[in-house]
Amino acid sequence: MRSAALALFSLLLLAARGAPILALTVSIAPAQESSAAEAETPAPMDSVVSGCMGSFFDAGLIATDAACASLRRAEWGGGAEVLGPAREGRVDYVVGIFVAWRPSAFKKDAWIPGSAEYRILRVSDGELAASGRLEGPADSESVAAAAARNAESFGASLGALCLAVFEARIPGGKP
């Protein structure tokens, strides 16, 4: 009995200090233009996802990802297409990411992220929590030479934008 009371007191103390008791679970739903995926050397979309997930992991979130969709921008559902599986997996938010790639003028078969659009959907009710756009790096010899590494940094920047949304919505508010 005493240990149960002590455990409850510890949880209340942690909550009062602002320490999270439960981790937020986020699923990334990546998409890219089909032309970039079908090229002889495909665009490094996995690097973008890796950078984004790394940002989430570093912030203490639980992150998963869906398979990358290859389609035209007009066909992109913004992550809504994975809400059903996300509900089954008890995910809190889906981050839909659509990356528009451009070939580098400095290195053959190097893809540079031109821009990315993102949408953050709350899984419980499908509400759009936030959306935005991030412009990619300028094409250069150094960017083209390290295309995968730069794509991962681009993904980390996308993750940081999303984290700002999560931090603004979670403390004391509606998750």
List the helices and strands and how they pair.
Layout: H1 2-16, E1 25-33, H2 34-37, H3 45-58, E2 62-65, E3 69-71, H4 83-88, E4 93-103, E5 111-122, E6 128-135, H5 141-145, H6 147-169
Commentary on this structure:
- The chain has a single domain (22-169), classed as Rossmann fold.
- Strands 1, 2, 3, 4, 5 and 6 form a 6-stranded mixed sheet that branches.
- It contains 6 helices and 6 strands.
- The chain is 38% helix and 27% strand.
- Helix 3 packs across helix 6 (147-169).
Instruction: List how many beta strands DSSP finds.
Output: 6
Q: How many domains make up the coordinates? A: 1
Q: So what's the CATH class?
A: Alpha Beta
CATH architecture: 3-Layer(aba) Sandwich
- The SSE order reads HEHHEEHEEEHH
Judging from the principal axes of the Cα atoms, what is the shape? globular
**Percent helix:** 25-40%
Q: Which stretches are poorly predicted, pLDDT < 50 over at least 5 residues?
A: 1-17
Helix count from the secondary structure assignment: 6
CATH topology: Rossmann fold
